[in-house]
């Protein structure tokens, strides 16, 4: 691995630090409003939970124009006693613009490179817009790596029942059915990982692809599972950042995440075809109930977008989906709100149908995946209606049932794939 991608001052800082035990990376782009809080939480986490370790905080920035990097450099905990810590610690801070394709993956690559250059044992990355991060997150993402020899620590959060709908309806059930591990938040954004896994990530030739732009979270999770690294998850409490209405324009994010997930299906087809069921993974952290910010939904608008899709995209869907599913969708478009429902069995057929169509290159990838948006919005509307009076536990049971349908129908995917 060459460090030629680093600017001279970063190379010099790495030379000064030489080696470190722990590194936490914060990718950023114009996050001046929130990043100071994240930096303070990480520093307090270092001091409180790893006082005897040499710790490094790295801000990998995408060219912010709002003083994000200056805030990182200047932010410090003035009074360690205020967070019940009696001592200063061996801690270093690096803020650097990353190089390569603009995107979160390129930011992570810089973090992996610095981790590798410093031979760290444990690393974590956390989002720069988190309002709910606490010093405990640093412990929960790193202790399983440092003390229990895990290579990958996925986050477990409580989220509002209408937040994270792409994860709940597609990414979690699909990756669980494919790779056989129940990692609940495979695209959570906040992860812990070993230095050895960071080094492995750097050997993969993906840094000029969409992984560098937007597919990094699902790529990291899938790569860790598929290559037999030791995986677990840690309960972090609530994930509170700027929430989005699940019926608003999520088509770009949906396209990005599903596209990256389908790409990985090609890479690891030899593996997932032989996996029959799924297993839980070890979970750390004390689970407790948390107050969550409400997520507003506009059901009428969601149903209208589904109906519009059913009118305008039917010819595309006919190329991808079995006739009985097309007939079902036709009928659903005519239903009143209170009767509207896209059940789990239909939804799983839709996702597997799209995966096979992408694999067989039935049409332009972007046209194909963009035509999934109204179907996803319809399924989300159906879920909102179904879960209207459900508490968090009941919602989790519904998601568990969806996962089981993905697992049961996987044979259909394998038959059609080949």
Record keyword descriptors for this entry:
single chain; Spore Coat Polysaccharide Biosynthesis Protein SpsA, Chain A; 2 domains; 8-stranded mixed sheet; 418 residues; 18 helices; alpha/beta
Concise account of the structure shown:
This protein is α/β, with parallel strands linked by helices. Helices cover 52% and strands 11% of the residues.
Q: Poorly predicted ranges (pLDDT <50, ≥5 residues)?
A: none
The Rg value, from CA coordinates, equals: 22 Å
Output the CATH topology of the largest domain: Spore Coat Polysaccharide Biosynthesis Protein SpsA, Chain A
Q: In which range does the helix fraction lie?
A: 40-55%
Query: What is the total tally of β strands?
Result: 8
The SSE order reads HEHEHEHEHEHEHHEHHEHHHHHHHH
Mean pLDDT: 92
Number of domains: 2
The top-level CATH class of the largest domain is Alpha Beta
At the fourth CATH level, what is the homologous superfamily of the largest domain?
A: Spore Coat Polysaccharide Biosynthesis Protein SpsA, Chain A
Anisotropy-based shape: globular
The biggest beta sheet reads: 8 strands, mixed
Oligomer: single chain
Strand order in the largest sheet: 3-2-1-4-6-5-7-8
| Number of DSSP helical runs | 18
Topology:
Blueprint: H1 8-17, E1 22-28, H2 32-49, E2 55-61, H3 68-74, E3 91-97, H4 104-117, E4 122-125, H5 135-148, E5 152-158, H6 165-179, E6 191-194, H7 195-202, H8 210-226, E7 231-238, H9 251-267, H10 269-272, E8 283-284, H11 299-312, H12 314-320, H13 323-333, H14 344-359, H15 365-370, H16 373-386, H17 392-408, H18 410-417
Parallel strand pairs: 1-2, 1-4, 2-3, 5-7, 7-8
Antiparallel strand pairs: 4-6, 5-6
């Amino acid at each position: 691995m060459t460090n030629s991608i680093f600017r001279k001052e970063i190379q010099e800082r790495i030379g000064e630090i030489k080696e470190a035990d722990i590194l936490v990376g914060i990718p950023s782009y114009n996050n001046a409003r929130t990043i100071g809080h994240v930096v303070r939480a990480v520093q307090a986490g270092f001091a409180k939970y790893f006082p005897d370790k040499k710790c490094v905080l790295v801000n990998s920035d995408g060219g912010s124009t709002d003083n994000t990097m200056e805030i990182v450099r200047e932010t410090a905990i003035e009074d360690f006693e205020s967070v019940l810590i009696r001592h200063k610690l061996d801690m270093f801070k690096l803020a650097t613009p990353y190089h390569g394709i603009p995107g979160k993956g390129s930011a992570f690559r810089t973090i992996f490179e610095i981790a590798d250059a410093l031979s760290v044992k444990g690393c974590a990355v956390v989002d720069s817009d988190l309002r709910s991060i606490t010093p405990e997150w640093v412990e929960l993402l790193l202790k399983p790596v440092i003390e229990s020899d895990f290579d990958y620590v996925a986050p477990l959060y409580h989220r509002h029942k209408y937040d994270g709908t792409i994860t709940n309806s597609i990414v979690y059930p699909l990756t669980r059915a494919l790779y056989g591990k129940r990692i609940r938040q495979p695209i959570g954004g906040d992860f812990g990982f070993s230095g050895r896994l960071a080094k492995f990530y750097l050997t993969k030739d993906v840094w000029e692809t969409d992984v560098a732009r937007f597919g990094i979270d699902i790529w990291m999770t899938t790569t860790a599972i598929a290559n037999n690294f030791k995986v677990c998850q840690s309960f972090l409490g609530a994930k509170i950042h700027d929430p989005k209405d699940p019926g608003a324009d999520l088509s770009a994010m949906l396209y990005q995440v599903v596209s990256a997930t389908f790409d990985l299906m090609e890479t690891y087809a030899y593996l997932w075809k032989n996996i029959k069921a799924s297993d839980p993974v070890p979970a750390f952290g004390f689970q407790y109930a948390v107050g969550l910010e409400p997520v507003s939904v506009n059901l009428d608008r969601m149903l209208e977008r589904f109906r519009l899709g059913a009118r305008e995209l039917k010819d595309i869907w006919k190329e991808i989906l079995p006739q009985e599913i097309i007939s079902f969708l036709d009928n659903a478009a005519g239903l009143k709100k209170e009767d509207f429902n896209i059940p789990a069995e239909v939804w799983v057929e839709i996702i597997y149908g799209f995966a096979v169509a992408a694999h067989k290159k039935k049409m332009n990838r972007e046209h194909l995946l963009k035509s999934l948006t109204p179907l996803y919005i319809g399924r989300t509307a159906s879920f909102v209606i179904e879960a209207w009076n459900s508490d968090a536990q009941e919602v989790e049971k519904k998601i568990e049932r969806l996962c089981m349908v993905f697992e049961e129908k996987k044979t259909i995917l394998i038959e059609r794939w080949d």
